[in-house]
């Protein structure tokens, strides 16, 4: 059941890219809520991830589209009122390096331009990252908590080779610039480290994790919470701007050990480094803006 503030011209939405775990979970949840879903995957080999979803014969349509192929995006968006966009690295360039920012910016530009040319689209939910918020030289001295008003310093990312933060920041900035220029109703979800089944030490979000921990800005989000946030932000017409999205703050040795148990096969090997330091790091990041929306949504699902 959608909230009272929900209104869109149709119940058809597009999820791009539906080949990742966030995208496929979004497709599943949207179908459960009665939406017709255009699920965009980058290649037909990813369609198997969407098998067995509820209502797939009637309300699920799978599109094989490339974020760098403008026409294929237009075809997938046709007839949709909304787009949930999350970037999945292409198969020929899966690693976040100094060149990924250009790739991700180009993809975001193509997708937002396609939305501008699709008359039925009335809202875009753009998945970004908390990494596009918290990397700044003044992080340790800033008096207020980090929130959606803050932006990552691009020069700092280049200096310390924080390629994931650089890519997410530049891509989100490019998306916002085009959304404002083309009068697109866009909202961004700046997610913390996603605590899902695909989490591993290779996750590019983890670059600089020790510094985030020490500064009280290391945040994570459960996959289900992240999916709920996307849907409610889409359904609530009052949602606007950026939303930091997390439901865990890793600021205590026990939190770090719990994460280590997921990332490392033998977490006991890493416990010693925390045993002598039982500090609780002061939290320096806030998601109050999102929480105000989520209270209402959690009462309805």
TrEMBL record:
One of its GO terms (molecular function) is oxidoreductase activity, acting on the CH-OH group of donors, NAD or NADP as acceptor. Residues 18-133 form the NAD(P)-binding domain. Coiled coil: none annotated. Keywords: NADP, Oxidoreductase. The keyword Oxidoreductase applies. It comes from the Eukaryota. Pfam families: NAD_binding_10. Transmembrane segments: none annotated. SUPFAM superfamilies: NAD(P)-binding Rossmann-fold domains. InterPro entries: NAD(P)-bd_dom, NAD(P)-bd_dom_sf, NAD(P)_dehydrat-like. Belongs to the NAD(P)-dependent epimerase/dehydratase family. Dihydroflavonol-4-reductase subfamily. This is NAD(P)-binding domain-containing protein.
């Amino acid at each position: 059941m959608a909230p009272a503030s929900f209104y869109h011209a149709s119940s058809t939405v597009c999820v791009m890219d539906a080949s990742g775990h966030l995208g496929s979970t979004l497709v599943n949840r949207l179908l459960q809520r009665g939406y017709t879903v255009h699920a965009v995957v980058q290649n037909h080999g990813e369609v198997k991830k969407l098998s067995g979803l509820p209502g797939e014969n009637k309300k699920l349509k799978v599109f094989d589209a490339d974020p760098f192929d403008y026409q294929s995006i237009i075809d997938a968006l046709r007839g949709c009122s909304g787009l949930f966009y999350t970037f999945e690295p292409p198969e020929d360039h899966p690693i976040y390096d100094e060149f990924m920012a250009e790739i991700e910016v180009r993809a975001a530009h193509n997708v937002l331009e396609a939305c501008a040319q699709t008359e039925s689209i009335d809202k875009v939910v753009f998945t970004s990252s908390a990494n596009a918020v918290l990397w700044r030289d003044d992080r340790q001295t800033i008096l207020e908590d980090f929130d959606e008003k803050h932006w990552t310093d691009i020069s700092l990312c280049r200096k310390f080779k924080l390629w994931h933060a650089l890519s997410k920041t530049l891509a989100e900035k490019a998306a916002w610039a085009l959304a404002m220029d083309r009068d697109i109703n866009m909202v961004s979800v700046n997610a913390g480290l996603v605590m899902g089944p695909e989490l591993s030490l290779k996750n590019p979000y983890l670059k600089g994790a020790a510094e985030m921990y020490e500064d009280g800005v290391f945040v994570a989000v459960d996959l289900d919470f992240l999916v709920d946030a996307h849907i409610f932000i889409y359904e609530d017409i009052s949602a606007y701007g950026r939303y930091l999205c997390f439901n865990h703050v890793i600021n205590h040795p026990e939190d770090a050990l719990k994460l280590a148990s997921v990332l490392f096969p033998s977490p006991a090997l890493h416990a010693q480094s925390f045993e002598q330091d039982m500090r609780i790091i002061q939290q320096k990041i806030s998601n109050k803006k999102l929480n105000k929306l989520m209270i209402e949504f959690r009462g309805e699902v």
